[in-house]
Design goal:
By secondary structure, this protein is of the alpha/beta class. It is built from six helices and 18 strands.
């Protein structure tokens, strides 16, 4: 009869095989059922009656098992996505799914995140130099106070991604559409952008001095209180783009606007009028 009890529990627990906490629950429950069965037999019950009453004594066990399994799996996922304070240089994360991953204070120099789904993840105070984010999904990710020097973002998915106070010298964004992305207090002078579309992007307190943004598309972009000396937008498309000075439009900011190259750029009328009012050189601009 002990085997009959074991077979019964095996059938009930089969959908949750491999979940550690459920396996432990199964072992404890089997021990309790065997003890209850012996008690019923000692009371004079026949085998079938003792078995049925033993099973009835545990009630709706399937609901309990489901709750334990869901909790266990939730905790396992948390463990699998928590890489804070980890020493993982040159690690292979290519193609992984790690939603809301935690990569705080981690050594990730040269790690490969190509094609990974990192939605909602946090990278903070980490060494991410030369990391490969090509094709990675960085939607709703926060990257703050990191070293991202020479990191690669070829065709990465950047939606509501927040880059803040990070080193990005040599970081390369190629063929990327940046949607509602925020770049805050970052030196971008030596960051590389090629073939990108900036849609709803906010540059806040960034240094873009001398940056080449030729041929790229800017829609609803704000260069909010950022350094823009000698930025080149040659052949770029600008629609609803705004430039805001640190304070009022001082002579210094007017001089900065005049250093920007807009040759062969295409603009909407509002962007053109705003820049013209600031004294930008727009003689080679096409207005549409």
């Amino acid at each position: 009869m002990n085997q009959k009890l074991t077979n019964y529990l095996n059938d009930v627990f089969t959908p949750y095989d491999g979940v550690k906490s459920v396996t432990e629950l199964k072992a404890d429950l089997l021990s309790d059922l065997q003890e209850r069965y012996r008690e019923l037999k000692a009371e004079g019950k026949d085998d079938e009656t003792a078995f049925n009453k033993t099973i009835e004594s545990i009630g709706d066990i399937e609901e309990t098992i489901l709750e334990v399994a869901n909790l266990s799996r939730s905790l396992e996922r948390q463990v699998l996505t928590n890489f804070s304070a980890s020493n993982l240089p040159k690690s292979d994360f290519a193609g992984v799914i790690a939603h809301k991953g935690n990569f705080t204070s981690s050594a990730l120099h040269g790690s490969d995140f190509a094609g990974a789904d990192l939605t909602g993840s946090t990278f903070k105070s980490s060494d991410i130099r030369e990391a490969n984010f090509n094709g990675a999904n960085l939607t709703d990710c926060t990257l703050s106070v990191n070293d991202l020097s020479n990191a690669s973002f070829n065709k990465s998915i950047l939606v509501r991604t927040n880059f803040s106070i990070s080193g990005m010298e040599g970081a390369k964004f190629t063929g990327v559409k940046l949607t509602d992305v925020t770049l805050n207090k970052i030196d971008l002078k030596k960051t590389i952008f090629e073939g990108c579309i900036f849609d709803g992007v906010d540059f806040k307190y960034c240094d873009l001095s001398g940056l080449c943004l030729d041929g790229q598309t800017f829609i609803g972009v704000k260069f909010d209180k950022s350094a823009i000396n000698e930025v080149s937008f040659k052949g770029a498309t600008l629609k609803n783009v705004s430039f805001q000075a640190f304070f009022s439009l001082t002579n210094k900011y007017y001089r900065s606007i005049k250093t920007i190259c807009f040759d062969e750029a295409v603009m909407d009328k509002l962007t053109y009028a705003a820049l013209k009012g600031m004294g930008a050189e727009l003689s080679k601009v096409t207005v549409r």
